[in-house]
Amino acid sequence: MKKFKLGYAPTRRFVFSAEDAFRYKVMIREKIASFGMDIDIVDLEGLNAEGLLYDDHLNADLIIDRFRQENVDAVFFPHCNFGTEDTVARVGRALGKPVLLWGPRDESPLEDGMRLRDTQCGLFATGKVLRRFNVPFSYVTNSRVDDPVFERGFTNFIGAANAVRHFRSLRILQIGPRPSSFWTMMCNEGELLERFGIEVHPITLVDIQRASKRIENGQSSELAEAVDYIKEKLDWSEVSEEDVRRIAALKVAMKQYAVSTGSSAIAIQCWSSLQDAMGIMPCLANAILTDEQIPVTCETDIHGAITSVLVQSAAMNRHPTFFADLTVRHPENPNGELLFHCGNFPVSLSVEERPKLRRHFLFDDHAPGTHEGEIRGGSMTLARFDGDHGEYQLFLGRARGIQGPYTRGSYVWVEVNDWPLWEEKLVRGPYVHHSVGIHANVIAPLYEACRYIPGLAADPVDPTESEIQAWLRGTQC
Fold first, then answer.
1. Which residue from 58, 254, 279, 468 has the fewest beta carbons nearer than 10 Å?
2. Looking at residue 179, what DSSP letter applies?
3. CB 290 within 8 A of CB 346
4. Is the dihedral of CA 358, 317, 415, 400 positive or negative?
């Protein structure tokens, strides 16, 4: 996976201290490197004597060329003194990538009354000109380099920009049509392409069956690794050696199709034609691929696959997602809910050291292939991209794991702030019974990502929009 690239374009204006601007250029660069984010930084060194963006048109063209050649994913314009708003806006418009504005808070004037930077004033100017140029941007409150608000805003922006870059290049591998009775899984493929540039690459169940059979009958290292993984990580005593090999072959076939088609995620018709044709359930194969950062959604849920990529990339691909049904309320906790699916949650999230590989407990054929057991709790984000009638929204909420009764399948019980409020919002739509969870707080970066995706509105339930904004400003913990 290509590492995230950030264009670093510190800016100054001639009427203030060039020396102080240079000092802050170095200080800010060192500070963002200390945040421990796995990103590449593309700076302006060598384009001029200072490595700063300032007011000449040639400078803008050189910066645009460098950032295009390096294929940066976002641009950060720290205002190291007042700043040069027209050049910032020209670069931002030419690149069309997420833009971050911030400037370090000024010190006291010198003893003679002179000021070295006037950074805040420059930020006001740049914000206005970016609006004139129709450049959407993110903003971090004017604060000192060591202020937690700067680190919070910067890291939040990187997560948002990473979600945007994956969204803009999104292709979903669709394996089979939706189950005929699942009208909730309808999606407008043409509209997804026209509005968001999202491609759906369909293949049939016959395609995946043939590919799996070819792999199963072969002796590839990929198949051997998948078989070894299943035997090492799971208790497979309830199924046969042949079942394990067939599940592993399906996993390898799905991954090969995803890689060869350039697909970021998969939506599969997991029942009931597949088990009729292959004699297995795909749940464990889905779980393993999701652990490998190729999320797989059940019941051909295209919108669920889109959600999975957004959530995973907002977390900088450091945590696996899990794809869940919202099923039943907790028997005792009024704000508790069961997140469940038949057996597709990532193995790495399991509470048990060796969770069970089992046969499906609902369908009459009881085909093998479900990865069952409870997953760990803790804090998590729940999200859902969905839409109808040409309008799309991104549901966002936070939850935490709680104790609850045993149930079959993959599951975790969670508590939210106000389940009746969540339930009403989900029922009234445009959402369905599927959600994507992750053990990370990615609500603020996903909220910010919507700023750069025309036609997608953030719909946070907890925290609220005003609470997210206050948190980013540092006025609320």
1. 58
2. P
3. yes
4. positive
pTM of the model: 0.96
Distances (CA, A) of 251 to 214, 221, 284, 291: 13, 13, 8, 12
Pick the closest to residue 412 from 313, 346, 314, 458 (CA basis): 346
Q: Peptide bond before 368: cis, by omega within 30 degrees of 0?
A: no
* CA dihedral of residues 110, 114, 120, 123 (deg, nearest 10): -140
Number of DSSP helices (H) and strands (E) in the chain, helices first: 15, 18
Pairing of strands 456-462, 171-175: unpaired
Tens-place pLDDT, residues 374-391: 999 999 999 999 999 999
Token duo for residue 460: 């946070």
- pLDDT 10s digits, 330-371: 999 999 999 999 999 999 999 999 999 999 888 767 899 999
Contact at 8 Å (CB) between 349 and 319? no
**Distance (Å, whole) CA 444 – CA 140:** 13
The DSSP 8-state label assigned to residue 14 in this structure reads: T
Q: Dmax over Cα atoms in the chain, in whole Å?
A: 86
Residue 171 tokens read as: 């292709």
Tokens standing for 452? 């750069």
C-alpha 344/C-alpha 323 separation (Å) is: 7
Smallest Cα–Cα separation from 12: which of 59, 58, 46?
A: 59
Distance CA 55, CA 60 (A): 8
